[in-house]
Design a protein that fits this description.
Layout (H helix, E strand, L loop, with lengths): L2 E3 L2 E3 L8 E5 L2 E6 L7 E7 L3 E8 L7 H13 L3 E5 L4 E17 L5 E12 L7 H10 L3
Antiparallel strand pairs: 1-2, 1-7, 3-6, 4-5, 6-9, 7-8, 8-9
Length: 142
Protein backbone atom coordinates (compact mmCIF):
# COMPACT_ATOMS: atom_id res chain seq x y z
CA UNK A 1 0.00 0.00 0.00
CA UNK A 2 1.31 3.45 -0.93
CA UNK A 3 -1.28 5.76 0.69
CA UNK A 4 -4.74 5.69 2.25
CA UNK A 5 -7.01 8.68 1.60
CA UNK A 6 -10.04 8.12 3.80
CA UNK A 7 -11.69 4.98 2.39
CA UNK A 8 -9.63 4.93 -0.81
CA UNK A 9 -6.57 2.74 -0.75
CA UNK A 10 -3.81 3.69 -3.19
CA UNK A 11 -1.60 0.77 -4.11
CA UNK A 12 0.46 -0.25 -7.10
CA UNK A 13 -2.57 -1.97 -8.65
CA UNK A 14 -5.14 -0.90 -9.96
CA UNK A 15 -4.97 2.72 -8.74
CA UNK A 16 -1.50 4.07 -8.10
CA UNK A 17 0.53 7.23 -7.78
CA UNK A 18 4.04 7.73 -9.10
CA UNK A 19 4.81 11.11 -7.57
CA UNK A 20 4.08 12.94 -4.34
CA UNK A 21 4.81 16.55 -3.48
CA UNK A 22 4.45 17.83 0.09
CA UNK A 23 4.38 21.58 0.50
CA UNK A 24 4.32 23.51 3.75
CA UNK A 25 4.90 27.08 4.80
CA UNK A 26 5.26 29.10 7.96
CA UNK A 27 3.56 32.37 8.77
CA UNK A 28 6.11 34.98 9.80
CA UNK A 29 5.20 38.61 10.45
CA UNK A 30 7.33 41.73 10.66
CA UNK A 31 7.20 43.97 13.71
CA UNK A 32 8.38 47.50 13.20
CA UNK A 33 10.84 48.67 15.84
CA UNK A 34 12.19 52.23 15.92
CA UNK A 35 15.84 52.50 14.97
CA UNK A 36 16.24 48.82 14.02
CA UNK A 37 15.38 46.58 11.14
CA UNK A 38 11.92 45.01 11.57
CA UNK A 39 11.90 42.01 13.88
CA UNK A 40 10.43 38.82 12.45
CA UNK A 41 8.17 36.60 14.50
CA UNK A 42 6.85 33.13 13.75
CA UNK A 43 3.08 33.04 14.26
CA UNK A 44 1.95 29.62 13.04
CA UNK A 45 2.53 26.95 10.45
CA UNK A 46 0.41 27.35 7.33
CA UNK A 47 -1.74 24.56 5.92
CA UNK A 48 0.13 21.66 4.35
CA UNK A 49 -0.60 20.90 0.70
CA UNK A 50 -0.19 17.38 -0.64
CA UNK A 51 -0.15 16.67 -4.39
CA UNK A 52 -0.36 13.10 -5.72
CA UNK A 53 0.29 12.38 -9.39
CA UNK A 54 0.08 9.17 -11.33
CA UNK A 55 -1.30 7.29 -14.28
CA UNK A 56 -3.88 4.51 -14.54
CA UNK A 57 -4.73 2.08 -17.32
CA UNK A 58 -8.52 1.73 -17.01
CA UNK A 59 -8.92 -0.67 -19.94
CA UNK A 60 -6.20 -3.02 -18.69
CA UNK A 61 -6.26 -2.94 -14.88
CA UNK A 62 -8.95 -0.45 -13.82
CA UNK A 63 -8.54 2.46 -11.43
CA UNK A 64 -11.40 4.70 -12.65
CA UNK A 65 -13.66 3.61 -9.75
CA UNK A 66 -11.14 4.90 -7.23
CA UNK A 67 -10.74 8.14 -9.15
CA UNK A 68 -14.53 8.57 -9.26
CA UNK A 69 -14.75 7.93 -5.50
CA UNK A 70 -12.11 10.60 -4.86
CA UNK A 71 -14.08 13.03 -7.03
CA UNK A 72 -17.23 12.26 -5.00
CA UNK A 73 -15.27 12.89 -1.77
CA UNK A 74 -14.16 16.25 -3.19
CA UNK A 75 -17.73 17.16 -4.16
CA UNK A 76 -18.98 16.33 -0.64
CA UNK A 77 -16.20 18.38 0.96
CA UNK A 78 -15.20 15.33 2.95
CA UNK A 79 -12.41 15.58 5.51
CA UNK A 80 -10.39 12.41 5.97
CA UNK A 81 -7.21 11.06 7.46
CA UNK A 82 -4.23 10.50 5.13
CA UNK A 83 -1.70 7.79 5.90
CA UNK A 84 1.49 6.91 4.10
CA UNK A 85 2.29 3.28 3.30
CA UNK A 86 4.78 3.03 6.17
CA UNK A 87 1.97 3.79 8.64
CA UNK A 88 2.84 7.43 9.27
CA UNK A 89 -0.27 9.59 9.60
CA UNK A 90 0.06 12.85 7.69
CA UNK A 91 -3.05 14.44 9.21
CA UNK A 92 -6.55 15.36 8.10
CA UNK A 93 -7.03 16.62 4.56
CA UNK A 94 -9.69 17.57 2.00
CA UNK A 95 -9.39 17.29 -1.76
CA UNK A 96 -9.27 20.72 -3.40
CA UNK A 97 -8.83 19.63 -7.01
CA UNK A 98 -8.56 16.63 -9.28
CA UNK A 99 -7.33 16.85 -12.85
CA UNK A 100 -7.35 14.04 -15.39
CA UNK A 101 -5.73 13.82 -18.81
CA UNK A 102 -6.86 11.07 -21.17
CA UNK A 103 -4.38 9.80 -23.77
CA UNK A 104 -4.93 7.29 -26.56
CA UNK A 105 -8.72 7.65 -26.46
CA UNK A 106 -10.58 4.36 -26.88
CA UNK A 107 -14.00 3.76 -28.50
CA UNK A 108 -15.86 4.49 -25.23
CA UNK A 109 -14.28 7.95 -24.91
CA UNK A 110 -11.98 6.96 -22.04
CA UNK A 111 -8.25 7.10 -22.57
CA UNK A 112 -6.18 3.93 -22.58
CA UNK A 113 -3.88 5.90 -20.27
CA UNK A 114 -5.34 8.41 -17.81
CA UNK A 115 -2.95 10.71 -15.98
CA UNK A 116 -4.23 12.25 -12.76
CA UNK A 117 -3.25 14.91 -10.26
CA UNK A 118 -4.97 15.09 -6.87
CA UNK A 119 -4.39 18.13 -4.66
CA UNK A 120 -5.23 18.01 -0.97
CA UNK A 121 -5.06 20.68 1.69
CA UNK A 122 -4.75 20.17 5.42
CA UNK A 123 -7.94 20.68 7.43
CA UNK A 124 -9.07 20.29 11.00
CA UNK A 125 -10.05 16.85 12.19
CA UNK A 126 -13.41 15.53 11.01
CA UNK A 127 -16.23 15.77 13.55
CA UNK A 128 -17.84 12.49 12.54
CA UNK A 129 -19.05 10.13 15.24
CA UNK A 130 -17.14 7.03 16.31
CA UNK A 131 -19.54 4.63 14.58
CA UNK A 132 -18.82 6.17 11.15
CA UNK A 133 -15.09 5.95 11.83
CA UNK A 134 -15.37 2.25 12.70
CA UNK A 135 -17.39 1.57 9.55
CA UNK A 136 -14.74 3.24 7.40
CA UNK A 137 -12.00 1.30 9.16
CA UNK A 138 -13.76 -2.04 8.66
CA UNK A 139 -14.39 -1.24 4.98
CA UNK A 140 -10.61 -1.20 4.42
CA UNK A 141 -10.43 -4.88 5.32
CA UNK A 142 -13.22 -6.06 3.02
Amino acid sequence: MLYILGNVRIDTFPFSVSGVQEEGEASIVSKGVLGRPPAKEFTAPADEVLTLTGEILPHKIGGMDELDELRAMRDRGERFRVERGDGVGLGWFSITSISKSHRDIMADGVGFRVGHTIKLTETERSREDGQATLQKLFSLFG
